[in-house]
Amino acid sequence: MDNGSLSDHLGGQLMRLCDVAGTDPAEPLELLRNVLGSAGPRPLSAPPAWPSNIADDHSPVEFSIAFNQGEPPTLRILGEALGTPPGGLANMSATQRFLDTQAHRAGLSTSRLDSVRDLFATEDPQGEFGLWCSLVFRSGRRPEFKVYINPELKGVERAPALVSEALHRLGLGTSFRTILDHGVRPGELGRRDRLTFFAVDLHDGPQARVKLYLTHHDAEVWDVLQAASVVDGADTTEIAEFCAVAGGGRSRFDGLPLVDSYTFIEGADRPLGYSVYVPIRSYVADDEEAYDRVVAVLTRYGFDSAELDRALDAVAHRPLRDGVGLIPHVSLRLGAPRPGVTVYLSAEAYQVSPPVRRRVTAGGTAVAGPAGRSAAGHP
């Protein structure tokens, strides 16, 4: 994209995003450098060191801005540390070393992670990733850390048993059967419905979470409404409206898949929160159309779109109409601990996906065809 390095590109975007979130950039920038490691100085004129599944262009970092009622936006970085040389096992080890270093430096609690670590240990990780980390920056607070594990890293068929045992060890096992009964279409576990992420907060606060993510390929909105019914207080009408606005009125998502997640907090025998993620880039012609839909979502939930404008200015280096994928996903969070809307932003460090050519249906309506590669969707 330019003559600078990966660190230069991502660091500039992060510094500007910190201003949007009201966060001092010093610590976020240092953490970003630590995540990137030896990949950071690599020039952008060279191809990506590793085909990271975090982003369509294989950037090993994705940004997001979470809009919450009554507080400033929250900035988050999703990252994959790369080994030297990079590879499935080497990247997992590099991400684990980063987390271990931060646990010692920042006093993180890894007790939950430690209790399930052996379940996911393997010398031959399978799937599109093994271990990712999330860095969360809230105005006036210390950074928070989360780890994302691929439940399928020992194979698709072993994922349900691994997740079941992990939740059991964490005292959350009673909900798993209910989630499978309601969140998975009959006969589709491991096929169109996949266990995608198992996430653990690395702190001991009262709102420390464990999250389980399901990906629903070729799904109807009804499928995620059924999945949400597990969570008390999850408003299915709101979920349906959100999917309609973000998805441009479609009821079936046959491009990139819908993703949903369940939030568990220690001491509760049922999930207390539910989120649904729409891969908006797959259902728009360009980012100008994606922007309009996201603004409509934010307005519906009472959020000022001016913060979105500032965030886009922080990361974009092109007009919105000149590409698709700068806004890859948008999510609705319901229930504990922080309901709201999250907008995801691609770094586009290596490539900009071109706009999708519109096609005309038999009824004369112009629509955009699915865009992007077949990714699982992000948390």
Defining traits:
379 residues; 10-stranded antiparallel beta barrel; two-stranded antiparallel ribbon; globular
Q: Count the helices. How many?
A: 10
Structural classification: alpha+beta
Radius of gyration over alpha carbons? Answer: 19 Å
The amount of beta strand, in percent, is 15-25%
Seen as an oligomer or otherwise, the chain set is single chain
The separation of the N and C termini measures 26 Å
Element order, helices and strands?
A: HHEEHHEEHHEEEHHEEEHHEEEE
Compose a concise summary of this entry.
The protein has 379 residues and is of the alpha+beta class. Helices cover 30% and strands 21% of the residues. It is globular.
Give an account of the 3D structure:
- There is one protein chain.
- This protein is of the alpha+beta class and 379 residues long.
- The protein has one domain.
- 30% of the residues lie in helices and 21% in strands.
- The protein is built from ten helices and 14 strands.
- A ten-stranded antiparallel β-barrel has the order 1-2-3-4-5-6-9-10-11-12, surrounded by eight helices. A two-stranded antiparallel sheet has the order 7-8. Strands 13-14 form a two-stranded antiparallel ribbon.
- Strand 1 and strand 2 form a beta hairpin.
- Helix 1 packs antiparallel against helix 2 and helix 1 packs antiparallel against helix 10.
- The protein starts with 5 loop residues before the first helix and ends in an 11-residue tail after the last strand.
- About 4% of the residues have low confidence.
